[in-house]
Amino acid sequence: MTYVPPDRDEPALDQTRQLEFTPPPTAPPVGMPTTGDGGPIDPFAGQGPAAVEYTEPAVPRDRLAFQFIWEAILLLLTLNALFLVYRREDELFGEEFGSLADAFDQHALYLAPVLLAALAIGLSLRLGAVNLAVPAVAITVGWVARPVDANLWICAGFVAAAAVVAALVFVLLVAAFRVPPWFAGLALAAAFVASAQAVERLAESRGIDSVAMWDPPNGLYVFAGAVVLAVAGGLIGLAPGVRDGLSGVKRMADGGERSAGAVFLLLGGTVMSMLLAAGAGFLMFAYTLAPSTEPTSLGFGPYGLGSASIDLQLLAFAAVLLGGTSLWGRRGGVLGTVLAVLAVWAGAVLWNHAMVEAGDASWQDDFAPLIDVGVLLVALFVSFALDRLGRPKEAVEADNGIYTQKMRPFEPADGPEGTGLFEPTLPDAVSPQR
After folding, report:
1. How many domains does the chain have?
2. 112 in a domain, yes or no?
3. Do 156 and 334 touch, CB atoms closer than 8 A?
4. What pLDDT, on a 0 to 100 scale, did the predictor assign at position 345?
5. pLDDT tens for each residue of 77-90
6. Which intervals of the chain are annotated as region Disordered (predicted)?
7. 33 within a domain of the structure (yes/no)
8. CA–CA distance from 282 to each of 69, 122, 136, 406 (Å)?
9. Do the domain assignments include residue 230?
């Protein structure tokens, strides 16, 4: 027996018809706080996150305290060396000069070009683009090339112009053609030395037979002027903005991104470095500062002969690095180079006197070149140590209570009998029964 439902006269319900609803009131009830657009405020909603202004992270700065500590130590060492020279003034200068003031006057005049060459090398190092043409410029101008004019002031103009042109070529090679700075400087040094004969031909064509040399001034004033340049440059180099700019030059010289600021800073620094080197060579020529064949206390460093001589480039690098200038750019001191030049001068004068007293076949004469190499190695160690100690501190993030460590993926341990299944141990399974 089959059940048959009765027919209904009711219409079928439309299942697709939308439900009718009443929209919420547009105005909130009386007494409820509203937002700026007229809507009610949800009393259970929390406050939104406050807007945090983005700030640039602080750039870590060099720790200059170690540089100043080393300069204080170097000051004590230099004063000690100068005191030893003062104690032995009769042995060192008695037969050559009438008084100690006269001796210091002449020695300061001979020492001024050495300090200028050291400043030129130091500026090149701080740029991060070492220019090996700097000593070659000084040597070529001072001892190799002939003057191209009888008037020394016009000759000085020719020398300055040549230095500026060499600086432009150096910057063009480094910044535009991406030539390594050491190779660009080496090429310029070779060009300066090779152009000596061409300069002589130019002098002959201009009819330069004799040049009226200048009378030597008070050497202490000339050396004091070089000291002022060294201190002023050191103080400028302490500015954080200048150090950041030097870092940009270093990155560009190493093949990094080029920027207008880095290129202009390299150009200005290289021009200044070349002018300092040319000034050192011009002082040697103008005041006839040359090595002497006679045994004299003035035969120190580049003015010596035989084993007593030190190449100007080696002496400049040793003084700059011993003063605390970095071999890798950016960092340098204020008085370090001046103190190092004075300390090396005092040691050279004392050692030169010991060599003269002992004779040519003495151990002092045999070990003199090794002493120069030893000074250079000590200078390298000082530069490396100050670089390690003076690097910026690593930023330590503050503990704000937020866990930021990444969670490691869950690796289930092998179950019993090597099935590879994880067998959880419930607390009730290991807890003592009560």
Report:
1. 1
2. yes
3. no
4. 95
5. 999 999 999 999 99
6. 1-47, 407-434
7. no
8. 35, 19, 13, 66
9. yes
